[in-house]
Amino acid sequence: MINSNHIKRGMALKLDGDICIIQSFEHYKPGKGAPVVRAKVKSLSKGTTVEKTFRSGEMLEDVELEKRNVTYSYDEGDNIVFMDTSTYDQIPVSKKELEDLLPFMKEGMEMQMLLYEDRPVSIIPPNFVELEVTYAEEGVKGDTATTAFKEVQVETGGKVQVPLFVKTGDIIKIDLRDFSYVERVKTS
User: Fold this and answer.
1) Sheet containing 119-124: order of strands
2) In this predicted model, what pLDDT tens digit does every residue of 97-145 receive, in sequence order?
3) Do 46 and 27 form a contact (C-beta atoms < 8 A)?
4) Better-scored residue on pLDDT, 177 or 76
């Protein structure tokens, strides 16, 4: 059993007799009433994603998943193939499962895979990734009365909001937990 305040992305829970994976969550304190935890959960048996709300402090039944270290090997049609770094097994995962992460994944990237009964259920990426900016519009001088941002595209095709000083060719660090800019690592 686990307290609803301690749930994390990628965690497996047993809800209404079904195994579900937490895809995202947020702690919410309404103006009146008790705090709650809102979560997007994906059912493993149905493949559907629904929003669930748990009372703060509610006890939930967690499920133990097997963790394996994997490397993103290659793209194969509708699947991404990962290689288990200890057994060298090739494990295909549907691109639909990686929809939000796919624009920031690079071949050779090391991740963790969660398995339930030898079936992949979730991919946990590293917290941060460093990618090269392939397209960035020039920032306009005098456009910085407040903190100003612009959208750039990185080498893997993903788009992220960055400060105006970032330009094409820079290497930036992106937080994969919320897909946000962290810092410029190297300038071009």
Assistant:
1) 90-94, 79-84, 66-76, 110-116, 119-124
2) 888 889 999 999 999 998 888 888 778 889 899 999 999 988 666 655 5
3) no
4) 76
User: Phi and psi dihedrals of 103, rounded to 5?
Assistant: -65, -5
Q: What is the pLDDT of residues 25-40, one digit of tens each?
A: 888 888 888 889 999 9
Among 63, 67, 11, smallest CA distance to 37 is for 11
| Domains of the chain as residue ranges with CATH | 2-62 (2.30.30.30), 66-124 (2.40.50.140), 128-186 (2.40.50.140)
Q: Which residues contact 45 (CB under 8 A, 6 or more apart)?
A: 18, 19
| Entry pTM | 0.71
Contacts 24+ apart (CB under 8 A), 33-41: 37/4, 37/5, 37/7, 39/7, 41/13, 41/15
CB atoms within 10 A of CB 112: 14
Query: What is the rounded CA–CA span in Å between residue 172 and residue 92?
Result: 29
Q: How many C-beta atoms lie closer than 10 Å to residue 7's C-beta?
A: 19
Q: How far apart, in Å, do the first and last CA atoms of the chain sit?
A: 50
